[in-house]
Every structure is written in structure tokens, then in C-alpha cells.
Design goal:
alpha+beta; 5-stranded mixed sheet
Length: 166
């Protein structure tokens, strides 16, 4: 028996985050090493702080959103950053099922001078977190700001704080 399910229904599914990844047919990318003198994640008590992440070096979109890239391309880039960060959370915790809540997201967008749709770009990241962790655990406090530039001319950089389940 097949049952049609609306696309957003998966976010309401009480199954685990790891199971949701499979349901969504998402394969996480390999974790790249840090590019400078820092670590990917630091755990303090039940909080996991993730360093700022950009897409992979070979990601197809580079430059300023609103000049070189559309909002949609920025959204796709933010989603790609989210996939990398999920892979780093898995490495740090052993499983995405140990995530109790996405607490805070700080999204930075390499923006053209007159660009003001940074929240629409960072939705690419936020929407992925809700798909993977569900509405309650995936929705988070957030900032989405414009930057004059980002490392290696990347369009998006995101940092995140996660609450870890014990």
C-alpha cells in the first residue's frame, strides 16, 4: 500500500534524524579538514559550538549574492553549507540522533552593496535543519547578515550551536 505524503510532512515525522536523512535520500559529504588554526567543533557541557563553515572549495557558486548570484543560488549554497555542517556534527557526536536541538544559527551572506534578502538565502540552511531534525528540534534562533566579503569569495558562511542529548 502506498500513501502520498506532502513534502513538508517528513519534518513532522518523529523518526530519528539519521532515518530522516535516508527518507530524504540525503548523503552527507566527506568532512574537509579545517583550513586554518582552529577546530571544527568544541563541546562545552551539553552544547556543541560549530566553527563557521563555507561550501566545499569546488562548489559551483562563488561571489556576491545580488550581483554574481541569485537568491536561489545563495539558498542552494546555504543548504550545501548545512550538509557539510551536519557531517561535522555526525563526526563530533557519532550520530545526528544525539542532537536534541539546533539552538542558534549565525548566517553570513557575501552581499552586493544594495542586497537585503539575506534571510531568504540563509533559509536554505534553516529549511534543511527543520527537514532533518523536525520542527521542534530543527527550528532555531538565527541571525542572517550581509558581509562585504567572505573567505575565498564564498557566498555563504554559517556557524551553529547545537544542544546535545545525553
Amino acid at each position: 500500500m502506498l500513501i502520498a505524503v506532502p513534502a513538508g510532512a517528513l519534518a513532522q515525522n518523529p523518526s530519528s534524524a539519521e532515518a530522516r536523512l535516508k527518507d530524504l535520500n540525503i548523503t552527507l559529504p566527506p568532512v574537509p579538514p579545517p583550513v586554518a588554526n582552529y577546530v571544527d567543533a568544541v563541546r562545552v557541557g551539553n552544547l556543541l559550538f560549530l566553527s563557521g563553515n563555507t561550501p566545499a572549495r569546488d562548489w559551483k557558486y562563488k561571489g556576491k549574492v545580488g550581483k554574481d548570484l541569485t537568491v536561489e543560488e545563495g539558498y542552494d549554497t546555504a543548504r550545501q553549507v548545512g550538509l557539510i555542517m551536519l557531517a561535522k556534527v555526525r563526526v563530533a557526536l557519532g550520530s545526528l540522533d544525539r542532537v536534541k536541538r539546533v539552538v542558534k544559527v549565525f548566517g553570513m551572506v557575501n552581499s552586493a552593496e544594495d542586497f537585503g534578502d539575506q534571510p531568504k538565502v540563509i533559509n536554505g540552511f534553516s529549511d534543511l535543519m527543520v527537514q532533518v531534525f523536525g520542527e521542534h528540534a530543527g527550528k532555531h534562533a538565527r541571525s542572517a547578515v550581509g558581509m562585504a566579503g567572505l573567505p575565498l569569495n564564498n557566498a555563504v558562511e554559517v556557524e551553529m550551536i547545537i544542544e546535545v542529548a545525553e
